[in-house]
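User
Here is a favour to ask of a fellow structure person. I am asking you to supply a protein in sequence and structure-token form. Please set it down just below, with no commentary around it:

Assistant
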Amino acid sequence: MLAIDSTRKMSFNRTISNGDLAIVYARHDNMKPVTVSEGSVLQNRFGVFKHSDWIGKSFGSKVFSNKGGFVYLLAPTPELWTLVLSHRTQILYIADISFVVMYLEIVPGFVVLESGTGSGSLTTSLARAVAPTGHVYTFDFHEQRSGSARDDFEKIGISSLVTAGVRDIQGEGFPEEFAGLADAVFLDLPQPWLAIPSAAKMLRHDGTLCSFSPCIEQVQRSCETMQSNFTDIRTFEVLLRTYEVREGKMESLEIDGDDGSNGSLPPCKRRQRSDGASVVSYPSSSSVMARPCGEARGHTGYLTFARLN
């Protein structure tokens, strides 16, 4: 996705190399992450794709199989990674993630604390937001889950921006070494109110906190706890409706009378009905249509933001 060199400059590697991770895109609902390995092949319903044909190509390239089928090779951006990663826990999706990054006011150079790591969906976007000189410290109480997330961060090229640790933040709080150093804190915990006092100690003056909770009862209790050290407490529910745009065929149409004579409709055929009325018949035609996706997601959770006094 991105690389950080020794001079702390951010660069985007646009050429695919052996060992890189690529997102193989067949269509918007058919994508998978593949590690490019010379000598390996990808086999799907479009045919057999040789990895060796991919090396040296730019991300975004269209590549062909032995049968003439094709897929696109895309860079593992945080947006795409969120759609293809392994779900070790319930994850945050793009609508919530973009809102969190904006409302926490995260910019390059920030230090961000996160708990818990989960599947690392949000962490990848936080890493890009703080790059190239900032850092994300993310914690999860589950050692195996934290280790899997660490492997993913290495795979997509953000390990220099993220440190994944194992810690029960609800029970122990954040490590004291971060006291007063964090610009922003994000909590995704079953009982976030237990970690809010520790988060307050970690934040710089005027730092921001966000807590994600699926239930309004969790939000209410968290807000009560925040009142001691925080101001400007606000809760949001982000709802996203996605539309699918594609070409489709409109069915043939019959209209009584002479409604299409002004030329605004395509060529037509006329016929007389048995009752003597004139019928105008228009043939089927192709057009671009937009309609809501059948898998549109509704409620995911509530985002509560607050600013340290």
